[in-house]
Amino acid sequence: MKNYPKVAVVILNWNGRFFLEKFLPSVYNSSYPNIEFVIGDNASTDDSLSFVRASYPKITILENTENYGFAGGYNHILSRVEADYFVLLNSDVEVTPNWIEPVIEMLERDTHLVAAQPKILAFHNKAKFEHAGAAGGYLDRYGFPFCCGRIMDKVEYDLGQYDDEKEIFWASGASLFIKSWAWKEAQGLDEDFFAHMEEIDLCWRLKRMGYRIGYCPDSTVYHVGGGTLNASNPQKTYLNFRNNLFMLQKNLPIGQLFTVIFIRFWFDFAALLKFAFDRKFKDAWAVSRAHQAFFLNIFKNAKKRKNHIKTENKTGQYKKSIINDFYLDKKQKFSDLDQESFF
Prior knowledge:
The chain is 36% helix and 21% strand. By secondary structure, it is of the alpha/beta class. The strands form 3 sheets. Strands 1, 2, 3, 4, 5, 6, 7, 12, 13 and 14 form a 10-stranded mixed β-sheet that branches. Strands 8-9 form a two-stranded antiparallel sheet.
């Protein structure tokens, strides 16, 4: 690649000294020649920034006045960054030296391809895909996200079975490459999400604008996952259920909106009962709170619906229910799914 567009690798930090100390060396040793490293800080109270200033004086530090969460945090930081490409990188990600070049080369080939992710493997078991992203994200007919290489809690080993470059529905926020002009045109992340599923909402909005999202298997990163909220945290349950409903209301075509959300309520009610049966009462209450928040914000989210769709791109949407496929039909690998049921 003769021309090297400027890339800003932006790590959002909140009290993340441990992860910065462990993973910044791999990021800092990236081989891409035209790069700026940015630590965006969400009002940390630990010594993470003093560590970065002392150990990496050439890294740009931009500070927020408060903890705006993942969505608001990145919006505030990226409004102060100038680059051709933004890379939103979690602090708990180890990268390989040549992780940037293949993704930028792929994005440069297609003006309509505006965002992408690398292959995301698990840091603690590098032979397996990682839950949050794996080999690219998809969405079923009822708004449940899943990945190539990860369906529900079933994660596959990376055997090279998903090494083809392809278009996906959403790219993981753990390592999200996006053209800066597309970020600005989409107006960034929805700050009301705070954290979780905000990148899926962003990708869906970009798809509704006619753009494409890609998966680049020639780039690999290793993600710890759960660095901020672990999988069993009731607050994570609340955010995931609430934000999924927010996302559906904002992006579904009006002809599908009421039916899909009605059916989702029944899926969510089943999840609530399962939590209660397993004596996870805080998680059950989190689902109930998520529904309350959905109704409290229903008019606010209605105003976010965009009617000026250019040419909606549905590639990566799954016409069936991934819940039924996984639990009833026992389809636990991406390759088991009916490939003709994808747009």
